[in-house]
# Entry
Amino acid sequence: MVIAIVVDLVDNKTNGSVITALRFANGLRARGHEVRMVAIGADGENDCPVKERYVPILTEVSALNQIKFGKYDEKRIKKTFEGVDLVHFIFPFKLEKKCKQLADRMGIPTTAAFHVQPENVSYNAHLSWCKPFNSLVYAYFKQTFYKKFNRIHCPSAFIAGQLAEHGYDSELYIISNGYDPDFVPAEKANKNDKFEIIMTGRLAPEKNQQVLIKAISLSKHREDIHLTLLGNGPKKAMLKKLAQKLNIDLTFDFLPKEKLIKKLQSGDLYVHAATVEIEAIACLEAVACGLVPVIADSKCSATPQFALDRRSLFEDNNEYSLAEKIDYWFERDDERIRMGKVYAESAKKYSLDKSLEKAERMFADEIMDNKARSEENFSFRPVMQNN
# Structure
């Protein structure tokens, strides 16, 4: 297949959706497909790089969360779309909306992914308390974008359920974003000077890293714990100040893939404190590396799906509950090492290859149905009679 992927940007490797889009594109290429990217920073031979679109206020706010908006260029994008079998969309923003209209005019089949969780918007707008706001965002996304698609890629059963609950009537394909196969357990166990806890993710309100810092301060073993927060974001200064106030041994870092793998392989425990999460590949990568996870049991998160039992779940936004789970695993080395192997095995059902197989089926289904619709429309064209 020849597939075009439209995503506002690919030049920021700290954004999870961008990383996912690039992983999918490279994975599809490895499976023999031609993939053309339409995005800021796209630089492949058949890609279509676009300029950044400036939106007053929103551009500045979005930049804090590693988002930029692409500018529509019909002439160049139309050339990129020529000869493609399908166009797949990552975000529901203006670039994607205009490209969807163009693809429809060109008769090209389309599918879309749901990666922007409305709760992410509300948390960053300091409206997390306002459930009607989230419902409005779901409705807005549906009316302005997603209702125009027959098939939507949902990274988790959780978000598919949310879409169904909010009246999305497209066919929903539950397909994990998939983790890179290079994330595997270490061949040899590592011994740290301190008990190493790791969390990966943007330093943003909905990721809730402050709960983890508070939990460590409550731990019976706080003096023997080191915390590494992997990521960047607007909450870094606040988190640093909180850690200093509570006297927590904390390191911030952002690592390329090879070093990230080694870091996860050398950890003792992974904590995912996020309240809002469509899937959390970061958690899955840690699990694939053999780390036992402790995950926030949030109603707005899909990540609890990775927990194999209640020992890996804590009450959302409750530092006391999290401290108990940290102490439990700190005090049980043998069980933690045993369960790390069990968790690594459990991750395999979310492998990138399995996700790509499911995505290929979704693309093929849409291409086949689009062809059938086109043939049906052609067969019903009125025949002009000569007088």
